[in-house]
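Field reference: sequence -> structure
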Amino acid sequence: MIDAPRLLKDLQRLLRQLEDDLRVRASEVHEIDVRLREQHGDAKDANRTGQAFEMWRDELLTQVAVAWILGCVFVRFMEDNELVGTPRLSGPGARRQQALDQHELFFKAPERRILSDREYLLDVFAEARKLPAVRELFDPEHNPIWTVGLSGDGATELLRFWQRLDPETGGVVYDFTDPEWNTRFLGDLYQDLSESARKKYALLQTPEFVEEFILDRTLTPALDEFGLPEVRLIDPTCGSGHFLLEAFHRLYELWVQREPGRNPRGLAQRALDTSIHPRWLQRGSGYWWRRSKRAASSGWRMCWNVRPNTRHPYARNNGLGESRGSTRASAFVARLSAT
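Structure field:
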């Protein structure tokens, strides 16, 4: 299980290094500089910013650096909990060596010998996009990873961070294995990784007891009054999606009680399509594991075909390159649908 306070502290230090790396690359690579200046001009013309270019660029690069880090965190969580097949970043035990072997194999192809770890990590993210449940988490339309790439050296530093060994135990420093698949630490990282982003975008997680208290007094009466098939749920101030996680769990269980013979995956999809307003599903984002029990090994992989309906006219994108909808979405559907 991950040591969340240690991970946060170490990642905050890494974030500063990646910000410096991106800043240098954005200044030295002409194509990146031109593209960012055009984006800044478009933002000013649309009255989305009044900042000078350098200040606007530095804030954007912070968002990009955070996205590179969180992308790796999410992949590592999937790898360590065997939600994907062969690991490509790192992992506990033999899985670390498997990841190192995959890295070596990637560069053996003649056309890849001139590439860097930047292209390797982008390929890892592109592979993750093939999973329907997390496709939009790594979608170029929404994820700042694709806005500005790290330098080759910066990407190597990021990759090696996940492969570090603890001299006392001999194992990887960061082990995300968790039998309960508890992902609340991901929301904490999203909130606390960048102090400037946390303040600017008012990122603050709601305690679980507050979530339950409010849902008991809002969702439950609505279900009693309108009935499960008619209830539609939206959180217009959704951040990392805790309210909607808990609400989805409740709605899914009610659908199971209503149609006990139906395929769990179908019920999970029904809860998404009929009970949750698609406004907050824009990201199809990645943290839906937190509440359910661990799925049987013979059944959980089918869940990755569950995909939220995210194409909705009310979906919007905020300054972080993320929707105001949840950053904790599809993967929980994936897990829950297999129970």
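Note: Residues 204-336 form one domain.
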